[in-house]
């Protein structure tokens, strides 16, 4: 074929500016547009974005190379050999013209990529060109009588990708369907033969690993002499490939940002970006068969525009049973239930044409014999002579089937026994697979259906129980975490994630819904403490949120008893007192919360040392000397005093030993020991306790200061200075130094200053000891 030379001269700065501003004349637009499209993406961005100065277009033109070749070699006939006869049509991707080959005296068709639109981005146009070229390459690989052969590839008159094909004589299948819709009588075998030829062509493509993805009536050409062609392979993809079409890449309805295909005909899974699968084409073949039989496609009526659903009501009993079964199997919403590929569809249609039966209708033995006899006079006579033998054989078959059903029932009884509660999920799933096999072998066995339903319910209940146990462990794990390490950086997001996994919304306006959920939740007793811990983390961590007002109301509303209601009331106006929640003067609520060990210990951990809590501490120690928080709070209450006697320091030590025996992994006993050794100026033991606590929670400022004191007391002052500088604790330490609040950290700050370690420069501000993740 002759080639056309494309003007590749670099446009002038004036042309580039006019192109970018949208008022370049049509005589120059195509030339400039082709030149820009030929550049690499980086250069395109520099040119198209260069509108900020008068000289920028000139500079861009000088930097862009003016030569280069495209991998799509120009060879489309626009020279003297071919003459344009007439336009045929146009779509979202390309334009189709009829050409006359003067040498061979024949007509050919040239399909060329539609030029870039003014509102189309370079990237989108480039992608469309790639798809167009790929259509030519794929179609050229498919040598089948039902697929139009590609003669040559190259460029059109404007340098756009193009290729030539055989001219087709015929009409689209959509015209036949329109006549059927208008009431024209149908020749069912002829139409089935048309769909069979389509299925054969598409099945051949499937065998080559190619999926069409846009089979519809307009893409099927039916010739006058019985030839049938599948055209327009522009959206074809290899099996397993995922479409990467960008939104707005083409004006065609077959290209969308969420999938590839024509919505009225494509499979439900094609509405998403899923891998190409032959079953997509099988769905479309079912739509073609339905439309040729009824005049209506699967989404013509009774289906909302853009819906994935189908309306199969037109496939009624007036149509051939076998063909209806084929169409319905092709149009299954679940892709696994369809034919594996188009060749399987062709085989079933071929079987219908030969014997009037299809595998899709699952015909019985008698139906097969009857259908064959109806089609053959000789066979009819033979059937009359063998009816007695068939009846005898049938009785044998019935007896054998009854025996098999009895064995299946016995096996189902065994499955029910083996899967009685408390069977685990793995055993239940294995049993369900076996029951599904039995159902497939005996579709009318109602016992198998009942056992299937029961196992599904058991599996669901077991999975819900497992999930509930997992959430219960997570909730109790976060409660244990506060006992072990105090506050931690991700405390708020960690607890919130688990609470929302339990179904709580935790929004300012979700109080009613969350209360109803808690009222019937089996996890309520584990959820309530973590709601309280979450509230404490928000308030002590100085994180503003409307939930500080919502959470206490939720605790009160969902409280299972008076103790929880009392605790919720104590939390209703939360504020901070020396890094703990401030206990309000509400004797009645305090007494109510102290009524149960769980709420009493939680109250001690939330509010810290307070004179009003000491009766609760003493009561809990009398009830249970092995309770952790009463020992911790009793020791911290002693440390809150301005001066301690030797005897009182020994009481701190005793409480620390008791707490350590109960929770040996917790930082709280080590903090108490550290202050005891600080008072005794026992720096080696002080440092040991501080390092042990620091290994559990390195973000706690109180632990860092105690470690600094221990290091400086052992003459490691330079390392101690670096440690306190890197802790970013200056604001908190200066606040406690200038405005003492009775917190034990103030003893550590005084000792640090006495050792010559200065507080880092900062404005005094009372912040949290552990800065939370916000």
Largest sheet: 5 strands, antiparallel
Number of helices: 30
Question: Which structural class do you get from the secondary structure elements?
Answer: alpha+beta
- Radius of gyration, whole Å: 41 Å
Low-confidence stretches: 1-7, 50-78, 246-258
Output mean pLDDT. Answer: 84
Q: Please bin the fraction of helical residues.
A: 40-55%
Strand order of the largest sheet: 1-2-3-5-4
The CA-CA distance between the termini, in Å, is: 69 Å
How many runs of DSSP E, i.e. beta strands? 14
Molecular shape = elongated
Q: What is the strand and helix layout of this fold?
A:
Elements: H1 13-21, H2 26-37, H3 41-48, H4 56-63, E1 82-90, E2 94-101, E3 106-113, H5 122-141, E4 150-155, E5 161-166, E6 171-172, H6 173-181, H7 188-207, E7 210-211, E8 220-222, E9 228-230, E10 237-238, E11 255-256, E12 259-260, H8 278-294, H9 321-330, H10 342-355, H11 365-375, H12 377-418, H13 425-441, H14 446-485, H15 491-501, H16 511-520, H17 524-540, H18 547-558, H19 562-570, E13 576-577, E14 580-581, H20 587-593, H21 597-607, H22 614-623, H23 628-639, H24 646-662, H25 667-679, H26 683-696, H27 701-713, H28 717-726, H29 730-738, H30 745-754
Antiparallel strand pairs: 1-2, 2-3, 3-5, 4-5, 6-8, 7-10, 8-9, 11-12, 13-14
Helix pairs in contact: 1-4, 6-8, 7-8, 7-10, 8-9, 9-10, 11-12, 13-14, 14-15, 14-17, 15-17, 16-18, 17-18, 18-19, 19-20, 21-23, 22-23, 23-24, 23-25, 24-25, 25-26, 25-27, 26-27, 27-28, 27-30
Short note summarizing the structure:
Mean pLDDT is 84; it is low at 1-7, 50-78 and 246-258. Helices cover 55% and strands 7% of the residues.
């Amino acid at each position: 074929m002759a080639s056309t030379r494309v003007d590749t001269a670099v446009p002038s700065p004036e042309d580039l500016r006019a192109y970018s501003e949208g008022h370049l004349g049509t005589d120059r637009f195509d030339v400039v547009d082709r030149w820009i499209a030929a550049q690499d993406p980086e250069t395109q961005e520099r040119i198209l974005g260069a509108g900020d100065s008068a000289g920028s277009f000139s500079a861009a033109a000088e930097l862009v190379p003016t030569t280069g070749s495209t991998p799509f070699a120009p060879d489309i006939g626009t020279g003297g050999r071919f003459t344009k006869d007439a336009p045929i049509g146009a779509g979202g991707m390309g334009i189709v013209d009829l050409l006359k080959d003067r040498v061979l005296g024949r007509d050919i068709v040239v399909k060329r990529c539609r030029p870039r639109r003014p509102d189309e981005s370079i990237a989108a146009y480039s992608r469309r060109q790639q798809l167009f070229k790929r259509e030519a390459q794929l179609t050229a690989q498919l040598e089948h009588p039902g697929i139009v052969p590609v003669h040559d590839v190259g460029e059109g008159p404007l340098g756009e990708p193009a290729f030539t094909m055989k001219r087709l004589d015929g009409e689209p299948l959509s015209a036949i369907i329109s006549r059927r819709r208008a009431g024209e009588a149908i020749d069912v075998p002829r139409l089935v033969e048309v769909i069979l030829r389509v299925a054969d062509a598409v099945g051949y493509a499937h065998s080559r690993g190619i999926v069409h993805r846009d089979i519809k009536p307009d893409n099927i050409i039916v010739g006058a002499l019985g030839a049938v062609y599948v055209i327009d392979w522009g959206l074809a993809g290899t099996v397993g490939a995922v479409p990467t079409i960008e939104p707005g890449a083409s004006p065609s309805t077959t290209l969308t940002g969420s999938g590839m295909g024509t919505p009225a005909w494509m499979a439900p899974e094609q509405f998403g970006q899923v891998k190409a699968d032959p079953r997509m084409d099988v769905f479309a073949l079912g739509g073609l068969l339905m439309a040729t039989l009824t005049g209506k496609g699967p989404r013509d009526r009774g289906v909302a525009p853009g819906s994935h659903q189908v309306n199969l009501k037109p496939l009624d009993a007036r149509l051939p049973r076998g063909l209806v079964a084929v169409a319905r199997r092709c149009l299954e919403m679940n892709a696994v239930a369809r034919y594996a590929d188009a060749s399987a569809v062709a085989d079933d249609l071929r079987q219908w044409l030969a014997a009037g039966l299809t595998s899709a209708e699952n015909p019985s033995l008698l139906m097969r014999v009857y259908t064959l006899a109806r089609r053959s006079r000789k066979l009819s006579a033979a059937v009359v002579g063998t009816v007695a033998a068939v009846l005898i054989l049938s009785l044998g078959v019935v007896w054998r089937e009854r025996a098999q059903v009895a064995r299946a029932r016995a096996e189902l009884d065994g499955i029910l026994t083996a899967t009685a509660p408390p069977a685990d999920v793995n055993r239940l799933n294995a049993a369900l697979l076996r029951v599904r096999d039995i159902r497939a072998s005996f579709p009318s066995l109602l016992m198998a259906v009942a056992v299937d339903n029961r196992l599904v319910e058991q599996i669901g209940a077991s999975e819900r129980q497992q999930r509930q146990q997992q959430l219960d462990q997570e909730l109790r794990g976060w409660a244990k975490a506060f006992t072990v390490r105090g506050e931690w950086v991700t405390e708020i997001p960690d607890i919130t994630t688990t609470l929302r996994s339990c179904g709580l919304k935790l929004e300012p306006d979700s109080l009613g819904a969350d209360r109803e959920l808690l009222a019937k939740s089996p996890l309520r007793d584990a959820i309530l403490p973590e709601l309280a811990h979450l509230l404490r983390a928000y308030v002590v961590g100085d994180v503003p949120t409307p939930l500080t007002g919502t959470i206490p109301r939720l605790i009160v509303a969902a409280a299972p008893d008076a103790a929880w209601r009392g605790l919720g009331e104590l939390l209703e106006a939360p504020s901070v007192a020396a890094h703990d929640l401030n206990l309000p003067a509400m004797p009645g609520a305090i007494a109510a919360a102290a009524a149960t060990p769980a709420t009493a210990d939680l109250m001690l951990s939330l509010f810290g040392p307070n004179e009003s809590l000491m009766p609760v501490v003493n009561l809990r120690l009398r009830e249970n000397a092995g309770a952790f928080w009463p020992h911790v709070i009793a020791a911290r209450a002693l440390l809150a005093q301005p001066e301690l006697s030797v005897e009182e320091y020994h009481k701190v030590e005793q409480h620390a030993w008791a707490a350590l025996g109960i929770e040996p992994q917790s930082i709280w006993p080590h903090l108490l020991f550290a202050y005891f050794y600080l008072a005794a100026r026992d720096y080696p033991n002080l440092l040991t306790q501080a390092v042990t606590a620091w290994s559990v929670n390195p973000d706690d400022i109180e632990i860092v200061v105690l470690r600094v004191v221990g290091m400086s007391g052992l003459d490691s002052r330079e390392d101690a200075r670096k440690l306190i500088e890197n802790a970013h604790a200056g604001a908190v330490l200066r606040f406690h130094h200038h405005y003492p609040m009775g917190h034990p950290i103030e003893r550590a700050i005084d000792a640090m200053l006495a050792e010559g370690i200065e507080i880092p420069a900062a404005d005094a501000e009372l912040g949290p000891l552990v800065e939370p993740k916000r």
